[in-house]
Amino acid sequence: MTAEKPPNLEGLAPIVGLRIREARTDKGLSQKDLVGERFSKSYISSIERGKITPSLKALEYIARRLNVTVGYLLTGVHPGQPNGASASTAITATPEEPGDQDSPARWDLLMYEARILREQRRFDQARHLLSTKIRVRQLGVEQLKQYHFTLAQVNLDLADYTSALAELDTARDLAEKTADLEMLARIRQFSGLVYIRQGKPVLAIEQLRQALQTIETGSMRGFHFRLAVFTELGQLQHQLGDDKEAFEMYQRALQLAEDGATPEKRALLYWNLAASYREAGNLAQARVYATKSLALYETVADVKMLTDLRSGYGQILLEARRFEEAEAQFIKARQQAVEQNNPVDLTVASMYLADLYLEQNDLEKARQFSDEMDRGLDKLEPALRGRALSSRASFLAAQGDNEKAISYFEEAVKLIEHTQAKELLSRIFFRYARALSAIGNSARAAEMFERAYRQLGRGSLVADR
To answer: Is the pTM of this model over 0.85?
Structure first.
């Protein structure tokens, strides 16, 4: 999640909001009639007043409800009029006249088009647009800041972390020269996000804490910015094992979210809280927040997130030893992954099913899903692959293949140590210790138990069953 501000849209956002309000009142609709159950009244009110620039999904939804095109809301031109916009979300081609190309209005539209392309996940096209359609040498300082910041976002979309950080450095230099505290805060927050994606939580926290200072001093009051900083700090503190700090950040995010966050964002916050309570060993509270998150995601029909959530919720139920309920969630997650042709989610669901059946000592079913998981290991990012390797190792140990099990455990440890995910690493050490104890290697098992406790830095350990 990012605290994304559309580039240089101070003039465009109010115009879009005005068109939405005019089209709504022309049709005799109230704000509640327009948004239905999809968005809050405060959210649409902020859009109409030009305080918030809607996402592409929100804009498409609003356009359908108003029976107009997205192109009309952006340009004010209906299809069929002279120079009319098409019914698609794409903005008309760049004019050939240099004067038009360099105009502030054209700049706003091109930057908005780049944002739309990002939301459509057409990242290469977004980078091509920014690199070829905008005359960088003719931009003013304010435009340059927004340009480099937007290009950094696109580079992150393409997992080009080095280029993303380079663009952020350029934008930071410009922001410091102009004493632009708001832009500096956004750059710090987004730099934190880049480091999160790189698996560098310590560097990410350093950037995000600087961004948090601007919130605490009242220098930065943007809704999406504050929501992103609270949520990302909560995720990182949870990852590094600081449950108290994680809970505080998530609670602040939830309080803020009640004022205008979309159901998707509230659902994500509920799930983050569920994950934190789970890591803290409070499975009852974890189930409460996971259930709330699941209910919200079912209403917005986000199949990808719903699949992830079912797997995670099933894991909470598994740790609570509610095997039948956990099995039902894992099976549904696996079915959705198959229907969506998503090999990553399929591998994860198979991993949890293998763990479930291993816990019940059903080695035949455990083998079926462990083998399925093993075939998809190369599709997982490092932390998740380490978790999957530990699952495979536990199954191999149960099968009596101790040498191969130890090899898998060692590989899992190396992967997780690199990501600095302390909670996950402690769980893998714990599983490793149980396997070593089962084969009679008590000295090595004791070492793994000690390493598990040391990772958490506290006197109790939640077992990863």
So the answer is: no
